[in-house]
Amino acid sequence: MRETSFDAKLINFTTIRVAIFSMQAKPENMKIRIVKNDFEINYLQILKTSNMLGLSIYECKTPYPIELGNKYEVQIDSLGIVPLFVDDVSLNDDFDEKYTYEGDDLGANYNDKFTEFVLWAPLASNVLLKIRKNEDHDSYYEMIREPKGIFRLKLDGNWDGAIYTYLVQNSGVVRETSDPYAKGSTPNGRNSVVINFKRCRIDLENDVPPTYNSYTDAVVYELHVRDMTISPYTNIKNKGKFLGLAEEKRQTLKGNPAGLDYLKYLGVTHVQILPMFDYQTVDELNSDNQYNWGYDPQQYFVPEGSYASDVNDPYSRIIDLKKMIKALHHNKIKVIMDVVFNHVYDAGFCSFEKTVPNYYFRRKSNGLMSAGSGCGNDVASERTMVSKMIYDACIYWIKEFGIDGLRFDLMGLTDKHTINRIYREAISIKKDFIIYGEGWNMQTSLPDEDKTSLNNALNLPQIGFFNDMFRDILKGSTSEYNFYQKGYLTGDLSYIEGFKFSFMGSCINYCYNRRFVSANQSINYVECHDNGVLYDKICACKGVSDFSKIKRVIKVINATVLLSYGIPFFHSGQEIGQSKNMHQNTYKSGDKYNMFRYDLLDQRFDMANYFKSIISFRKRAEFLKVFQSEKIEEIVSFENLNNGGIKIVYNLEKFQDTSKFKKLYLFINPAENEVYYSSEHYLRVLISDVGYAEMETLNTKNLVISPNTLILYGEVEQ
Length: 718
Description:
eight-stranded mixed sheet, alpha+beta
């Protein structure tokens, strides 16, 4: 075992810290040299020395500013020579100013006569391209360093489908890595692949879905590719695959619509698809042996291989995904991509860390990684080249795959500048592009004022946020520790005033300060992939297992989401009361707890019909798509009824709506007792417990609202 050793670290571009570990006496006149590229030798000027328990620290000034891209070593007589550790300089405040690259050519740029490889690796002293084509032997090419830390290499010839990696040397250590900007991949992300995009051009039918005027035109349905297609109770052929969601004329065992046809049948305008880019915790070669929602990113520019029809063909995952998006567009359904830019699966072994150590992940003041995501690492979106990567990835998915929206996972961990920049470019490509996300104020080292969080929603009027207040006031706490806590629609009638605030899109000062500038920002939901599902929550709050009662409450809650102001959002299976048997987090629990239950759909198709009919009503009712707070105040008024019920009036006299009614009356009774109401005017039923169906022959003044019921009436002039 060595009793003496030393290392040398670059602190800034003119300061090196040398640490000697030895119990032996050090020379009084220590000589420390720096060696550049094996031949240029100069002495370091020792500015300060400190000693403690065998450790001696020397703060040294360099004879010239250190220029990254060169090989540097530090030499001490009788101790030897060590590589200069430069990785920490990426944390310096001036690093971005020196090394930000604004080009749009990172990655492998294919041409049938040549391919140009471009990598940003400013700390590296050397980068080799390792490449192989058609199962030939590996070839190695030294890349040329350019300003701003770019390494570039142009290879003549046709490199379509070639497999490649980079060998990046940082601080004397060589690590092999995939391309952070790779567009193609071998299974499980082991190697990057050169992609010829001429081979995977598909008309994505971007012009087929209608163009929407505001976010509130949307009805969003969240799904997972595997969950929506894997069930044995349908005749979907490509089960668990992108292509499974592209198949038309598919049915359940009882002949009800399945897959894409079911989405079309419901009438949803947008599908939000859980992560479709490459994630790490499912073995793509054995995808039936593992399950994951996909919130563990590995490659941000590559579609997930477990959803491909042929994972060994790098083009399959690209073409299959495009076919799925084309099919959804053809059926007038827009696609929102769920993206996870707040963390990666394994920071230490990801391509970012291997390429530019210490740069891509946020640090606390003590030097430790910030972990607000709960996954051990927060992506440092505020750094210019990290922000550029996130921006480049989002715009790539919009342009190449035709996506229509982005849902940001833990968006509060991402800085406002990055999100705003993406929004500005996205709407220049698609004017009705939608961006929203989870705005929780997570504990990370990014200053609160810079976060894309709910706390800053009033300064981000173009960005939508999941409205957790709407969720918890309507149904009660989502936390597994308070799962039995009720909300207004599950039995706690004291929430009636908060319910009004939520119903109006949380954009009007009423018992709470407004959260949003307009209802365009409020993602109204009571269930998503996270946490317990609505069916289980109702069972917990109501303490019942009587399905007929649970069914009534589900209908009331789902209809309320659709009749409120904001963007209605639903999780697949919510409409038919799918249960997870009280499990709160099923991110890796497999098909048993996660797949869409088409067998249950066959049993409860009346619930799907009810849901479909309320969506149909909302799509026709232009007054429900109003998002300006002042207009919502003009339209909506409330009256508290006996036994905890509520009457909501939609005043359409001042609103140029297509409805023939001047006023609509929405009665909600979330209690266990009947609610009675006498009206001055005759009222006609528009929505009842069977759904939306105007009953022209049923006009009444005296109403009895049954327990756990929602009814909408139109005022009839007689």
